[in-house]
Amino acid sequence: MLQYTVRRVIGMIPILILISILLFSLAKMVPGDPFSGDPDPKIKRDVLERQRELWGLNDPIPVQYMSWASKMIKGDFGVSLRYKRPVSDLINERISNTLLLGSMSLFITLVIAIPFGIASGRRPYTLVDYSGTVFSNIGLAMPNFFMGLLLIYFLAIKLGMFPAQGTITSGADYTGFRLFLDKLHHLFLPALTIGTTGTATYFRYMRSEYLEVAGRDFIRTAKAKGLPERMVVYKHTLRNAMIPIITLLGFELANLVGGAIITEQIFAIPGLGRLFIESVGNRDYPIIMAVSMISAVAILVGNLLADILYSVVDPRIRYY
Amino acid sequence: MKVSRSILALLVLALAFGSLLVACNRGGNDTTSEVTPPAEENNNNASEPTDQPVDGGTVTFAMFSAPGGVFNPVFYSDNYESQVIQFTFESLFDVADDLTFIPLLAESWNFSDDYKDLTVNLRNDVKWQDGVPFTADDVVYTYSVLADPKYNGNRSGYADPLVGYEEYKSGAESTFRGVEKVNDYQVIFHFKEARPDAMDLANYPIIPKHVYEKYTVEEMASAPETLEYDKLIGTGPFKPDKYVANESYEMVRNPDYYKGAPHLDKVIYKVVSADVAASLLETGEIDIYNSISPSDLEVINSIPGIKTHEYAAFSYQYLGLLMNKRPADQIKNEDYSKPETWTPNEKFKDKRLRQALAYAINRQGLVDGLLEGHGSVINAPFPPVSWAAASPDQLNQYPYDPEKAKALLDEAGYIDKDGDGFREDPNGNKLEFKIDYPTGNPVRYASAPIIVENLKEVGLNVQLNAPRDAGTHFNGLDFDESEMFLAGWSLGYPDPDPSGIWKTTEPYNNSRWYNQESERLLKEGVSLKALQDQNYRKEVYVQWQKLINDELPYIFLYSANDIDAYNTRIQNVQEGPLGITRDIHTWWIKNN
Fold first, then answer.
1. What residue of B is the nearest CA neighbor of A179?
2. Are A42 and A244 within 8 A, CB to CB?
């Protein structure tokens, strides 16, 4: 197992290099650069040209790539061409919000989808089943944008139960645990917005897997043996039905990082998703590369964790 | 049995969810404590003029994107950063409603006879927000930073025109001669040559020497006093106090402000989403919503206690025509300097065709339909409130007149001979036009198909290319890629000199317009005679506006209005052509 993990980790390196080359080339192929987009006639062209020179934008692309890569290996993400600040600062300001938001939405998704999925699996074609299916499909069909605005309008503006925007209460100066609670309070609505969208997928997988496993012989045996229902459901059926869920969760790690761009926009949450989209529009290559690489690492690590989790859940799965 | 179990399960889940919501309600009142819903009465501020201002209260502005995080005026490049520092840092002059200069940190000023030296007398009662007096040293220091060899920001254009810039920049001289300190309250700006924008150039925000001089210019770019909002020290009415990065920026009153201590306790800039801004005005979470989206106007008008102020924005949209093409090697090398080698674009050579375009496009229709009347048609690139603007009767208004357009086209020889509904050129060749347009501005985006319809109606075969994102589109203009393009410019102020865009060799002259008369007038507008005699200067610019209004290298389309919305509990708001924040230190809150 350990050997396997080490081999997988080593195998990530060439993949990451390939991804970085591909992304870098694609980003550079898009016409324009950070200094060309928004012309301000008060700033003379030669000043912009000088800035281009300074930041190495006139060098040949392989040279630019090597200069970026050599810094990246040492952990230096470079300086944002648009904001003139270290990219790591910009990311640090936002990554905790994105991760917290991602975790909360994943939590909400699972808390809703898994129990409902199990309940539906246990009692297919009943009221529980139908209501679960309808509810999760509504979550899937309704656009994030619309759901977010509805929640803001009803729960934040009309009822005042939750704040409408931002991640913390400005001017209140909370610290420590109180600050954490404040953040949870602010992120609840956006997390709900994203969470309800994801429930359909997990719900359906849970339900169909559960049904499939529940029909197997060994479950009949367990029931025939007289095992309590709880044990049959959780210890035997559920454990076997979890495999596709784990697959999905493996990719979820990347979603946590990628951020939910639209939701961040509506709720005015400074997060990685928004930063990424803006930097693409601004042709801010250091940020584009940094966020993409973080996502790439997250996907690869997520997959590895999922694979390892398989062998935990299903002892028949072995790696060599 | 089955059904009741499942209903039970549902109820339990609902209960759990509900209790989660209730639990979270604990902190729900925090944001409302600072919030004051707008006054319910139909507020007419003028009805009680004898009200005395009271101290206290907070005003919250909405902003729609987080500032980049570089707050030192010498380094900032972001519009959003300039918003959160506008009440902190000040410059020597302020701009009046007719776009002339009035005193701010400067008390008085005068030019030498040759207009190369500008002597400025500074106020002697100004203190920085940490108590240190403001003096001429700070002005000299600010410009020395802009001229510094290691300065890498993009504002060196403010120091470049001053004497001694190259010598200081290259390190040949160790002091920057461009700004000279005469005594603690007098400086002289020495320009290399007489120029009309001298006062504009002398008007950069001043930074405190005693705060930044401990850093080299290189270090300054990443110093805490540059990057951390709460460490900024300025001379303005409000001092930065607290901030939550990318979310909210708070300033408190500067009691020693030289124009008088502000009444407000705090001013806050809050980052919110434009989609919910109107609702936040209603709950009182924000008090001021600048440049509202037109779609919100109806909603905002229905909120009691909110007033709107509408004024012409200093920008316009146009349909650009590529008048001349540069040789391929010049395009590649970004060489704009040889207009004699440019080839005229046959398609737009005839002025009658260009004027026909202007008559054919229903520009008032665009204003009425897309802007819902919140804008106006524009016929020359000058802000209407500028002292140099030509009056409407001096310009051809090009009213919407498809028949006139057709007549002009007929006269110029553009006839449809083969009966396909589209005119051929005078030589009988097929004639086709392609318009490029960008995303990013919804009104401009929506105007493109309408313009195409208008032009088709007079028999011109015009097609739209697929829209591209703004960055790509504007980049393409540098390389003469588009023959017809939709774009916009802001209208420069305070100084009206249009050379920055219209000088033939300017890269920003994206129609590549080459007209000797225009060149002559632009030069005349900044000649010494023009600088000495403003009436003469205005005459020159009126002539230039008439020329461009006749020649039409652009079809000028429309200028949208800006609408600001604010809570009427704020008293003393001065509504003007430049917005509502003039003299913010006189604002006070009337609570009912």
1. B27
2. no
pTM of the predicted model, to two decimals? Answer: 0.81
Return the DSSP state at B153.
Answer: S
- Strands (DSSP E) found in B198-354: 238-244, 248-253, 266-271, 288-289, 306-312, 315-321, 324-325, 343-344
Output Rg (C-alpha) for chain A, integer angstroms: 24
Tokens of B478: 């540098």
Q: Give dist(CA B285, CA B281) in Å, integer.
A: 6
Q: Which amino acid is located at B52 in the chain?
A: Q
What contacts B6, CB < 8 A, 6 or more positions away? A119, A123, A126, A127, A128
Report d(CA B502, CA B492) in Å as an integer: 12
**Contact by Cβ (8 Å): B99, B383:** yes
Q: Are residues A115 and B13 in contact, defined by beta-carbon separation less than 8 angstroms? A: yes
What does the pLDDT look like over A147-184, one tens digit per residue? 899 999 999 888 888 988 888 887 677 788 888 899 99
Interface of A with B in 230-289 (CB under 8 A): 265-268, 270, 278, 281-283
Pair B457, B360: CB distance under 8 Å: yes
Compute CA B511 distance to the chain's CA centroid, rounded to the nearest angstrom. 22
Q: Which two tokens stand for residue B332?
A: 């590649």
pLDDT along chain B (592 residues), means of 10: 57 57 41 44 46 90 87 82 91 89 95 93 95 96 94 86 93 92 96 89 95 93 90 95 90 94 94 89 91 86 93 91 93 89 93 95 94 91 84 93 95 90 90 92 92 94 92 86 92 81 89 94 90 90 95 94 93 90 93 72
Peptide bond just before A228 cis, omega within 30 deg: no
Distance, CA of B509 to CA of B488 (rounded, Å)? 12
Residue type, B521: L
- What is the per-residue DSSP string for B85-120? HTTT---SEEE-TTS-EEESSEEEEEE-TTS-EEEE
Q: In this complex, do B247 and A166 lie within 8 Å of one another by their Cβ atoms?
A: yes
Facing residue for A266 by CB, picked from B13, B29, B273: B273
pLDDT tens-digit profile of A246-255? Answer: 888 887 777 7
**A101 closest CA partner among A164, A160, A189, A174:** A189
Q: CB neighbours (10 Å) of residue B97?
A: 12
Residues of chain A neighbouring B75 (CB-CB closer than 8 A):
84
Q: At what angle do helices A61-73 and A2-29 cross, to 10 degrees?
A: 140
**CB-CB contact of B199 with B101 (8 Å):** yes
- Report the C-alpha gap between B400 and B379 in whole angstroms: 13
